[in-house]
Amino acid sequence: MNFYDEFIKQIIQYQFQINSYISSTIRSINDENIFTSSLLVLGIAFLYGLIHAAGPGHGKALVAFYFSTSKNAYSQAFSLGYLISIIHAISALALTFVIYFILESMFRQNFNYYSKITMQISAGMIILVGLYIITSSYLSRKHKEQKLEKNKSKYALALSAGIVPCPGVMTIVLFCIMLKQYLLGVLAAISMSIGMGFTISLVGILSITMNKKTNNFLENKSFILEIFGGILILLLGILLLYINNQ
Amino acid sequence: MKYIKKICFLLLIATNAFSHPHTFIEVKPTIEIKDEKINKFNIKWTLDEMTSMMLIMELDKNANGKFEKDENNYIFDSYFISLEKQNFYMSIKSNKQELSIKPKMFKAYIKNNRLIYDFNIQDNIDLEDLKINFMDEELFVGMMLNKKHIKINGINKEQHNKLKENIFGVK
User: Fold this and answer.
1) Which tens digit of pLDDT belongs to each residue from B100-129?
2) In this complex, do A172 and B142 lie within 8 Å of one another by their Cβ atoms?
3) Most exposed residue of A21, A39, A115, A121, measured as fewest CB within 10 angstroms of its CB?
4) Chain B residues in contact with A206 (beta carbon < 8 A)
5) Which of B58, B139, B169 lies closest to A106 in CB terms?
6) pLDDT in tens, A114-146
7) How many CB atoms are located within 10 Å of the residue A213 CB?
8) Which H or E run contains A246?
9) Domain ranges of chain A
């Protein structure tokens, strides 16, 4: 087993332990321990989000492609990381409540169906963002970068990556709903998304650091790297669309 | 060199899969050995508590805490058999040949709020160069194998640890 396989195996093992710990803690909540147990659940949910986002995922790939190929401040990594994770969690919360209270039964089948649709929408949006970055980088190659345009692509990227509801968040929220712990479900989703946002932001920071070193080498030709990033994002979108149409 | 490093970094993040486990299955295999072959191979999957609760809500239609024959058939047809594409999250290599899993005697039941799938797979598997791995290539399901959950019948106890390591790769 190579290093990467070992790393993934270890991440899965941690997630399994945390998953078991969260479910047993939520189930053990009663009138006497509600405050301490709820705080414990929120703490574990944060940790779960942190580790959950460390596994492979298209959100991190997008962040890495975006930041390693265009100039950005470190604060931008946090803003994009948290935008993605917040949208990811809101989307999961909304879908869980809609399926549970409106569509009622067949949660799993409805969940798979809507997950596939959102994944296709996400892939389509990622393709558009990729095309937008390629076009705008090419057109503005002789100008200073325009902050407004960069923000546009950042928000579009966050929406396209985050729109796919996080199944991990959905599972915890649904588990809380079934045990009539509605508020705890929503708070656990928020706590988990804070953890996920932190990990995604770290990927962004790493990518920005790499970009700064490479850009010194490229000097005024940094638009080439931006176009390269756009192409990678475009290819990722096409790949995701292909996978979700099989 | 900088470009190569950057591309490697990007590929490492995007590589392999676009998902991470949201369901966990504890795998409990029991094998019976006779004449250097696996004479009987039983597998139990215990799904994590959160996924179990979600599925039980949906599958135990009369909510009596157990699955009747029609419910069992429904689980097999609608959920279990579709995993054939993933070879039931298993890889069995015997004599350097990959086996296609053929499950039989499938039974689903509920124990301690957990959903359990119990099934046998084909027997008569040669022990020569036998390697068994439980893994979802897409990483959507985390297959958890613990050494203490592997049961081996039909050989001396002294050989158990060695066989578990050789066949299942657990230490």
Assistant:
1) 999 999 999 999 989 999 999 987 888 888
2) no
3) A39
4) 9
5) B58
6) 667 777 777 787 788 788 878 877 776 666 555
7) 11
8) none
9) 58-243
